[in-house]
Fold each of these.
Amino acid sequence: MRLGKYLQPRKYLARLQAALAKPITDYEADTLTELVYQKTVAFNRTTTLDLSMGSERLLLALGIALAEGARGEPCRVLDFGGACGVHHTLAALMFPDAALRWAVVETPSMVRKARSLETETLKFFESIKAASAWLDSVDLVNNNSALQYVDDPLGVIHELLALAPKVLLWERMMLSSGATHVDQQRSLLFDHGPGAVPAGFRNRKVVNKITRLSRDEFLRMHEAGYRLRCQAEQRTYLFSRR
Ligand SMILES: C[S@@+](CC[C@H](N)C(=O)[O-])C[C@H]1O[C@@H](n2cnc3c(N)ncnc32)[C@H](O)[C@@H]1O
């Protein structure tokens, strides 16, 4: 047995340093947005899709939206909490010939940081209203591990459903099997953002307040207008319009 494989003093020390440093408690923290931005800039150079990132469900949802879209029209995506546009990069890698119009809704600090990554077809907004005005209509709503961080998750769901998208993908949801309640999520800074950690960052703890929405209520909100096409691990829900 190679003991060195298990005793990794450097890794242990890095984790210890992260544990002792003051935790980040805010998604708007400069260090967090800077790390996600730098990781995304590097990730945008990827030329081959890495399926181990769990991107296949987004690609499935986008495939349905593209198939149901009108010929010659771009597929319009509202990506709520889409960070610096990582999901757009994955979508463009898989569907290089598809015409996409992609609006990311993010926190003001993430939007400020991501602005330099904007193109004709990828834009960043601070509100669903501004994003949907630019998109005109919405084919796909993508939401990957974002709803639990907002102050009013029910309000965000209502606002997104009112846009009547053809397809809705809720990924990495943190729902409650009972009543809606507030909880805490602990993670490490280095686990945020796609791909490798750039030089110059020190690991830190990140502690976020999250709201675990009642799963029954979440599902009920979609019942009138949407059909649940697939779900996975009680964390992923893909709906299409009835
Ligand atoms: C766990 S990260 C997920 C990022 C990205 N969707 C992904 O899968 O890599 C949560 C994201 O939600 C964003 N977020 C937090 N509060 C938000 C809010 N009120 N409105 C929009 N985005 C928000 C954060 O800035 C962060 O980018």
Amino acid sequence: MIVSDFLPDIRTVYYLEKQMNTYYETEHYKIYNENCLDYLKTVDDNSIKFVITSPPYDNLRKYQGYSFDFENIAKELARTLAEGGVIIWNVADATVKGSETGTSMRQALFFMELGLRLHDTMIYEKKNPMPASVSSKRYHQAWEYIFCLSKGTPTTFNPFMVPAKYGHVEANMKHRGADGELNYKKTKRNSHTKVRNIFTYTIGGGHSTTDKEAYGHPALMPEKLAEDQILTWTDPGDTVFDPFNGAGTSGKMAVKNGRTYIGTELSKEYCDLSKHRIENTLTDLQKPINRLFETE
Ligand SMILES: C[S@@+](CC[C@H](N)C(=O)[O-])C[C@H]1O[C@@H](n2cnc3c(N)ncnc32)[C@H](O)[C@@H]1O
């Protein structure tokens, strides 16, 4: 018998020493008012199917209780991500002393060094970007990265489809026969095709979300962005995890679409905001069902 067999797992010790501060929990969602790094240390290896998040971008915004230990958080995310699991990492660079920082790309490369695939670099295009000043020598910054990182091949992929341009027309396919002659054969084309990996959203007041209170948070992810990614990489009943919960946008879109949700957030105020938004969404989902049972 070797000595280490008697030693409890280091993560169990950690968990026992520091119980997680569960802010709120229902059968649909759970929010921890905690540092995501502390939470992740309590999570088993290869157990999280889907993560969607937008971490603090360089030092662009002031959050209450800001703390972002990127490398250790990335290591924990890579360790806890399930085989076939996906991380959607929405980021952008600050411009410092005239240069973009390159932080976003460095983060994607770091995840690759940890063994994850850079499965797809998607673009979040802003239909109405903040204009750059006329005097600046740059075009308007109109997009952000949506890195899709995966452990192996993603288990779930439900792509958005659109009608193919020539889907209704039969193709004239060439086949060379055994005698070497070219034969033409009418072949049905696919009627639909996957959308491109550029997702365009109108952002800002009334667009990113219609929840007025959500703008109490300085860096909202557009709800539609979160929803599109959740629908693509998860099935109903799956769990969505956002380590940088913010105002709870991922959680709101998760429960709206029949997924369960776990979020971690340092600021108590943003936990309050998230709970309110998610509860309102769950109440709205109940409304049509209740009406079925209403009597005159
Ligand atoms: C860019 S915002 C996320 C916004 C969110 N996607 C939304 O739409 O509301 C990042 C959030 O991460 C929180 N945060 C920063 N460091 C954290 C950490 N180590 N653990 C948990 N939350 C953290 C900040 O307080 C902030 O609310």
